[in-house]
Amino acid sequence: MISLDPIVPEDYDRLKPYFRNQRYRLCIYSLPSLLSWANEAYHPRAAVIDGCLVLAAKFIREPSKDHLILPICPERESPPEEVYRLAQETGYASVWFVPEDYIERYGKSVCERWFTIHPQSEYDDYVYSRDDLTFLKGRKYAKKRNLIAQFQKTHVQTGEVDFEPIEAASIPECLSFLDLWCEERNCRSYTSDDLECEKQALINLLTHIHRYEVKGRVLRIRGEVVALGVAADLTADMGVLHFEKAFARYKGLYQFFDRHCAEQLFAGCSWINKESDMGVANLAKAKKSYYPAMRIRSYELRVKRPSERGQA
What we know:
Layout: E1 5-6, H1 12-15, H2 31-36, E2 42-49, E3 52-59, E4 67-68, H3 80-90, E5 94-99, H4 100-106, H5 108-114, E6 115-119, E7 125-129, H6 130-135, H7 142-156, E8 161-165, H8 171-185, H9 193-207, E9 215-221, E10 224-235, E11 238-246, H10 253-264, E12 271-273, H11 281-288, E13 294-296, E14 298-303, H12 306-309
Parallel strand pairs: 11-12
Antiparallel strand pairs: 1-2, 2-3, 3-4, 5-14, 6-14, 7-12, 7-13, 8-9, 9-10, 10-11
Helix pairs in contact: 8-9
């Protein structure tokens, strides 16, 4: 049995070369994201096998959720038979976050020789055209433009608004903003493990923001941080907006800041991945209101036992 070892922020530089030419369009395949979501209940693990970075999630309290993700190989892709072998050798029963186009490339019938295929609709990512989010053209974005105009009239034209990149000096203010944002949104009322862990993931990311080479922006009103966004590269033409938070008490702030993030954090990208809705209805409604250009479907591949594989 091959052992996978825990990975920590200090491993970023060592792991980064494996993400060169990263091809998968689901947000989980961002190295900063993989490292940032670590907490007392969830530990990311990794090993280098045959030139590929094999990554796993270990859940301390819910071992039934332990899983691999697809191997990260700079020069090639692991086909289903190889992924099956790696799952066998590392002792994992399933592979999560398998993009739909991976299954399409190899064919459903080929994948089903080794795995049973199960949708993970709560982890389907929303992807938008950067131009759509930057320019907000057309009737469908009229409400967004109106809210932006109201915010500009109330706060921008009065000289109250400032923007800046997230720097080391502003991180304590960002963390204080996050506490206040959670109070405003009553974060503790959520029961989903993913939502409970989100605050800690953002704290982890902010703490190591320069190590991870991610980009961040804050917006201030009268000197107070009232919105922040953090983004990273994902593929050659797609970036991922890992976090975007804004106080609800300022009408039009979110819409104004979202456009600012599209302009400032995704230069050189054609597409912006805004992650999944995690099955949360209000979050799904908000993401759909920006008219995604595509959804990146996520699937779980469960390893078949030899008796299930028959003659395949």
